[in-house]
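pinning this so it doesn't scroll away 📌
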Amino acid sequence: MKVTKSVLIAVIAFVAALVMASPASAVAAKFHSVDSSVSNSGALVVSFDERGVGNGDIDYTLTADASAVYACINGGGKHPQAANKETVNGDVSTGGTFESRNGRVQASLSAGPIDAGGFSCPGGQRLVLASVSYWNIVLTDTTNGTSTSVPDAWRVFFAV
């Protein structure tokens, strides 16, 4: 069998492409499930299951827009009708690194809540987080360049 020069070049190019292919090209990272909730402290908690990530440590970032309402509660556990509440808006973010197991990461990240800033209560009242909400939530696998939108989350602790 006689091999032509063009066939030989094509075979060499194919073998070179296979040898040069990076391990990441074999990775097909995809978020299988993602869920959001608000913890008792008012933090955004995003739990996720990502598959096809390969082996090793996988880096994640979590970002969200946030709003928190802080209020003053008196000794009887009531919110006085006075205008002593404050709404604070801003961004929250966090990151984390998790080890994949069999090409899969199941984990949770938490961020927030936004700080009350300079808002304070008069004597005899205590500052509480009345409610918190998070939207435009995005979870990103920065190792594999995969992102997913996360459902909005909110929680009311005190009706004010």
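📌 and the second one:
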Amino acid sequence: MIKTILFDVDGVMLSEERYFDASALTVWELLFSPVYLGLQGDSFTPAPEEAEIRRIREQVFAQEEVLQFIKSRGINSNWDMVFLAFSYQLIRLIERLKPQVPEAASLLTVPLERQELARLREWARVYAPDFQVEYAAFLADFAKSSAQKADLLLYVNELARERCGVETRMFAPNCALWQLVQETFQEWYLGDERVAASIGRETMQPGKKGFLTDEIPIVPPEDMIELFRTLQARGYTLGIGTGRPSIETHVPLREMGLLEWFDPERIVTASHVLAAEENCPDYVPLSKPHPFSYLKGMLGLSTPDLDVIQYPLPIANGEEVLVVGDSLADFLAARSIGCQFAATLTGLSGQAAHSQFEERQADYILDDIRDLVDVL
């Protein structure tokens, strides 16, 4: 009998659209802003209009095909998505520069930070002013690998070897470039007013409005409130396991009247995951599809991170815990835990995900979370 229900946020309660917008804008900025690579071919601004955002996202993710591919390999973090998309174009640029600037390839063997990007920017300006970003080429190169989840990030090292002839292990979860990507994404999502509280500094390029006050609920908030009220009245303990940082979880859910229905001890965010990765570096990565987020929600925030990581799996009382998510990463996390899983068809793939979850034998498949009342 189910006692605890742990919900994902994006694709379940809130639309992922703004996260994908911020992801595309981050890749675009890193490629074309004069603060980063400053490539020719697109004009950067920190405050694009909505029509421009739509254009950028369509290009960066090749009409969503790149997004679909990355998510199909079990990657659920937008930070990882941006890291993969940008790292690939970075390697293509170095491949182009190498004949004229042999030392460009050596940058792949050191932590890639702002100083290294600045050197590439100067070389590209002189030796590759006509370099063309090919977003869709990502698909063919990554499809050659069967890598799943965090291994997909490590596969970038293999692409560096194939394209640039460089042996490296610099591309990895939480590497210097990944952290730069993560902070730049936070600038876009949070905007100038809120970013300092998240990453400890102001935006590198002021003018970003942020998306946090422009969230899109998947179903009307009043319907979700009624759902959570009903579940709480029936005695279920409600928690959250999300890839969003804490501020991006608490602010919109509080504004919509949803946060109060969840046990504060069981609201686990990407901020908790990052803290656990710092505390327990031998176990990186801990983001989904690793079960850490949901396990921490099941056990409670007061449970030490190492105790969560080393908790025996599958759990003995798997029938008492239900994870509600929209992605393969959520499903894999639930299966690792040994608990039940309810798939919502409100993520990126929509109803097309039905066959995928049916094939994988999800315990429940819901059109949206409102169906949970009838299922239970």
